[in-house]
Amino acid sequence: MYLLAKDTVNGAEGKVFVTRDEKQIEVAGMMNITTYAEIQGKEMRVVGTRTIQNKANGAKQTGKGNIYYGTSLWTDMVLEYINTGNMPQFDLQITNDDPSSSVGSQSIAYYGCELTGSIPLSILDSEEAMLNYEFNFTYTRVAKLRSFNEPASYGG
User: Fold this and answer.
1) How many beta carbons lie within 10 A of that of residue 42, not counting itself?
2) What is the dihedral of CA 18, 19, 24, 29, to 10 degrees?
3) DSSP code of 48?
4) Residue 48 and residue 41: Cα distance in Å, rounded?
5) Mind listing the pLDDT tens digit for each residue in 132-155?
6) What is the pTM of this model?
């Protein structure tokens, strides 16, 4: 049994929404976005065995994306922080939805997001026809809103 190519999910088929101040915005110009949950752990050694065990003790929740330059969404948040000392939080909803795949769609929401790292305020580059930049963020809570289905059929 194996997954058929027709049921893989096209990475360009989906949407990203940002909710800030109770206003939901569909983010146009997103090249990619990926979220991570990095499980943190502590090693444990015990007399009588050479085995090193690991105990999970937290999850570092981060994300990164790349967007075409031309939206003020992230810039406005950075300027608010610089000018007021208040770092705005936002929520994200990422939906994969490839109509050519029988697995359907998946939507995951990320709450309490904050930008981290460097966000360009201005860009000029004579070598680039389409300006874009990377951004990073953290989040405090995650919820799956909709799960993929099992494929309609398998090979083999």
Assistant:
1) 10
2) -10
3) T
4) 22
5) 999 999 999 999 999 999 989 999
6) 0.91
